[in-house]
Amino acid sequence: MKHIILGTAGHVDHGKTALIKALTSVDTDRLKEEKERGITIELGFAPLVLAKGQKVGVVDVPGHEKFVKNMVAGAGGIDIVVLVIAADEGVMPQTREHLEICDLLGIRNGLVALTKTDMVDDEWTTLVTDDIRQFLEGTFLEEAPIVPLSSATGDGLEDFLGELQTIVDIVEERRDTGIFRLPVDRVFTMKGFGTVATGSLLGGKVRTGDTVEIVPSKIVAKVRGIQIHNESVEQAETGNRTAINLQGVDKATIQRGDVISNADALVPSTRFDIFLRHLPNARKNLKNRSLVRFHVATSELIARLILPGGGEIEPGAAVYGQVILESPTVALAGDRFVIRSYSPVTTIGGGEILDPLTVKYKKNREAQMEEMKILHHGTDRDRVAVILRRSGLAGITARQLQIRTGTSLKELNAIIDDMLSRKEALLLDKEKRTIVSAPAYQVVQEKIMEASAAYHERNPLREGIHKEELRNTIGTYIDPKLFNSALRSLDNAGKIRIERENVRLAAHQVNLADDLEELKEKIAGRYRTAGLSPPLTKDVIEEAGTQKKAARTVLSLLLNEGRLIKVSEDLYFDGTALAGLREDYRQFLLRTEKASPAGFRELTGLSRKFTIPLMEYFDKSKLTIRVGDHRILREGEKK
């Protein structure tokens, strides 16, 4: 059965709360001040059971102009609106404003309740009905039924419920992205239970026992219990009016506007790309960097509008732009918002969030405007392509794509698989489904080639650049997985060569001058002759006299070629001699099962100066394992 939320809208004292009470027997005005003043101040909630057994969650909103921000907080999650208009007054200021807000929030289903018909005659009711029909022309309620009724006498209530049932039968459930989101519209403490937060569940599911996060503060809590329509349940789903009993969190740490979600599912942001409509009846132009009140879901935040070209827009205009929030909040692409002027406070526009994790405008604003058009009107695949391109070298996970496109994970995975098969993207992390665009991947490869070429030009006598130095050169912000994947691809393509921890261009060769070639062979011969009793590296460099710098280069070349092996910072060994010792040591351990430093000295005839570094080297090179004061062979070396 579909999960539907019904919300009221309309001018103060037009009978919204009375209608809900007549339909549900629930008085949604619960506050003492509401009782005393006779008006709704805060949001009220009630369950409504229709003739077919369909349970509908009802949100009753205040109609007074001072409490429009509360109305917006309640309207954000509704699927069907009941525009309440009193027959004795007709269309009033908040009737217009509430209808505009519902339109800006993307509500497309509803009906009109013409209340208080017991206070006027039939002729007047007909005149008001005609006036309302004219008022609704061009709006999403243009074809909606207008039902005359009286909450006091009960006249018309059955007709109203019949029309509502018809709408409920045809209305589509809201699209579920799969990300659990419950924007908090009310929080209170219940004796014996603790903190309770309520809201309209906009996506995903939540179960008793789940660990959740309150964002943007990122406070972690556990779901102790769940209620829907005042009944305890194990699970709540998209479209449910939901109350969650939270364990491990104090009431004072949660407020209206916070969002309860799964841990790390949502990312707080202070900058959104938006599609903005400036209402036709707004009193003046909307200027760039205007200070406004930004309403999204149940939150109200102070923000500045960034308009294209830094100009201004007239009433009735629609543009792509950005909003910069004074404090962070969370949203998904496709979420609707309302803006109200900072002072005096009136509703002046609203629209749709296109990218909730965008960045500051770049120099090429035209390209960014084109991207926003695609994010607004494009297919799911089109939007994924734009966000992937925007993610650049950092790449993006499937979860982040959910946030920035408003697409379900199932649909995203199908799109990602298709992009991978077409080689439009590269998979970096299978578990997180992290991908990077093919052009960005190519940029990384180009950076590697350029940095390697520059290194060879600066250091013509060195075989190559160390991997980590290369990554630092092209940018540590580049994911190591992306970097290593690009290296392997270039190596497989024969463009570079990876030699242990060094990287060089495939075409790069070290061509030593005759004197350096002679020095190289001299140093190599020195180590070869010394065998297992080599000179200290610093002594070899000192002996080179005026060729000290060249000697360091030669030593690096010999290490890269494998002719020398680095055992410690100041001890290099001839590669052939060390390989022979390794096999002798292995055979010794096969016979004796373990070796002490004394046993190693007996085997090699070397002094402690060489014995300890060599034993530690064989530990590091995975031949032996140290156990107390002895070494034993690793299992793989016992064959």
Structural notes for this entry:
- There is one protein chain.
- With 639 residues, the chain is of the alpha+beta class.
- The strands form nine sheets. Strands 7, 8, 9, 11, 12, 13, 15 and 16 form an eight-stranded antiparallel beta sheet that branches. A six-stranded mixed beta sheet has the order 2-3-1-4-5-6, with helices on both faces. Strands 17-22-20-19-23-24 form a six-stranded antiparallel beta barrel, surrounded by four helices.
- The longest helix is centred in the C-terminal third of the chain and has 21 residues, at 438-458.
- The protein is elongated.
Secondary-structure topology with pairs:
Blueprint: E1 4-10, H1 16-24, H2 32-37, E2 44-49, E3 55-60, H3 68-75, E4 80-86, H4 93-104, E5 110-115, H5 122-135, E6 146-148, H6 157-170, E7 181-183, E8 186-190, E9 194-200, E10 205-207, E11 211-215, E12 219-228, E13 231-233, E14 235-237, E15 241-247, E16 259-262, E17 269-278, E18 286-287, E19 291-296, E20 299-306, E21 312-313, E22 318-329, E23 336-341, E24 347-355, H7 365-377, H8 380-391, H9 398-405, H10 409-421, E25 425-429, E26 434-437, H11 438-458, E27 465-466, H12 467-474, H13 480-492, E28 496-499, E29 502-505, H14 514-530, H15 537-543, H16 548-561, E30 564-568, E31 571-574, H17 575-592, H18 597-604, H19 608-620, E32 624-627, E33 630-633
Helix pairs in contact: 9-10, 11-12, 11-13, 14-16, 15-16, 18-19
